[in-house]
Amino acid sequence: MLIVSDDQGYNDLGILNSDILTPSLDRLAREGTRLTNFYVTWPACTPSRASLLTGRYPQRNGVYDMIRNEAPDYGHRYSAAEYAVSFERVGGMDEREVIIPSVLKSAGYRSGIFGKWDLGTLKRYLPTSRGFDDFYGFTNTGIDYYTHERYGVPSMVRNLSPTHEDKGVYCTDLFQREALRFIDQHATRDPFFLYVPFNAPHNSSALEPEIRSSVQAPEKYKQMYPLVEPETRVNQRYRYGNPATVATPAARQRDYRAAVTCMDAAIGKMLDALEQRQILDDTIVIFFSDNGGSGGADNTPLRGHKAQTWEGGIRVPCIVRWPAGGVKPGVVNDEFLSSLELLPSLAAATGAKLPKNVVIDGFNWWPTLRGEVASAREEMFWKRRDWIGARVGKWKWVKMDNAGGLFDLEADIAEQHDLSAVRPEILTMVKERYANWLSEMESADPRGPFRDF
Predict the structure, then answer these.
(1) Residue 386 burial (CB < 10 Å; 0-12/13-18/19+)?
(2) Distance CA 293, CA 444 (A)
(3) Cβ–Cβ contacts within 10 Å for residue 321, how many?
């Protein structure tokens, strides 16, 4: 069972931060291993999700930027006809890419996804066209939690068909419902892969500034946190139209935390369902965030946030539970690991066959999680348009417009002390490794939707 949250901060677990309530994730950490040096491949949604499913860098699988429209950022509401021919509607992950459920199918697994897809909205790109057997969720980067619309455009789909059946119901509750249904159908009959990519705690993708400027959460969960007063303020220089009533920073943080707690409750029900069927300890449970936190998130002690190549944009919380596989409870593992490791590791655990003639950028992490060997990962690279991140061993080079530098992550996880002038030979080495990686990515078999071929 793979659970992915959306924009959750590095420090936003109750076991680390008493200001946020996550009893189910805290349970996972107590009963499993928490990874503190775990990375995703891109500092925002779409490319990160393509990589975790393919085991390939975004630049190799072709999804190295967001599949979205920019116009709503400026308050534009699409008509149905206009949206139908926009890039967010027609773009998608290259059909040649092989993802986790297709790999696991060779070992007899049934696969379901309930939540955020974000890898194409046309039928040929949808999950059930890519190896999943069951899908209920939304197809683009974000929605209103209750209307299930993205900036006014209905976005919920069941398998290959758009649906309005649950409009008005909080979507975390819907993804919980569908996940529990899938567990009930398959847990005692079939080997299964359950992927639950929540949209919580991502900001609402609504056009209304008061909704859009925060995260929607049920009142029950808001009331678990201290009262906020005032809830809103008037922003005279709001980017989507002036003036505008928006959530205060305090309200945004409260709403964010409430959405995380609601998601945590759903996770708890899934764990309970597996436990009631006496298969929890035999089930691999993996949790992490798709990228660094933003808005009301806490990325302490990391620098930066979502969309950036600082650690706060790409190093995320991750927990793995699998007692039957030798993953020990209550362990904190600081080995250098990433979401690229998921596909080869799940293949190794299930006996599934990796795709032939496909370069996989990850490796089997189970010996490392069992404490038997050090991680095989020695380097990793990130490219978001002209922003760069490159890690080789303990050294990290960051280049973002006029910001960046060389940092020793073992001594300076917060990336506060630029060592470029002190260790120029290290900076040269890291830049050379990045140039080698970039050359490899550019020479790889071209994949859409962005490459020119």
Answers:
(1) exposed
(2) 31
(3) 24
- Helix, strand, or coil here: 196? strand
Sequence letter at residue 405: G
Q: Which helix (H) or strand (E) holds 265?
A: helix 249-276
Query: Residue 232 corresponds to which tokens in the numbers above?
Result: 């809103």
Q: Report the topology of domain 2-379.
A: Alkaline Phosphatase, subunit A (3.40.720)
Q: Which pLDDT tens digit goes with each residue over 263-322?
A: 999 999 999 999 999 999 999 999 999 999 999 999 999 999 999 999 999 999 999 999
Nearest to 344 by CA among 300, 376, 383: 376
**Inter-residue contact 248 to 295 (CB < 8 Å):** no
306 phi-psi bin (left φ>0, alpha ψ -120 to 50, beta other)? beta
What pLDDT does 265 receive?
98
Do 8 and 260 form a contact (C-beta atoms < 8 A)? yes
DSSP codes joined into one string, 7-68: S--TT-STTT-TTS--HHHHHHHHHSEEESSEE-SSSSHHHHHHHHHHSS-HHHHS--S---
Domain boundaries, the chain: 2-379
Q: Which DSSP helix (H) or strand (E) runs through 211?
A: helix 209-212
Count of beta carbons in the 10 Å neighbourhood of residue 168? 8
In 96-170, which ranges are continuous DSSP H helix?
Answer: 100-105
My answer on whether omega of the bond before 209 falls inside 30° of 0, hence cis, is no
pTM over 0.85: yes
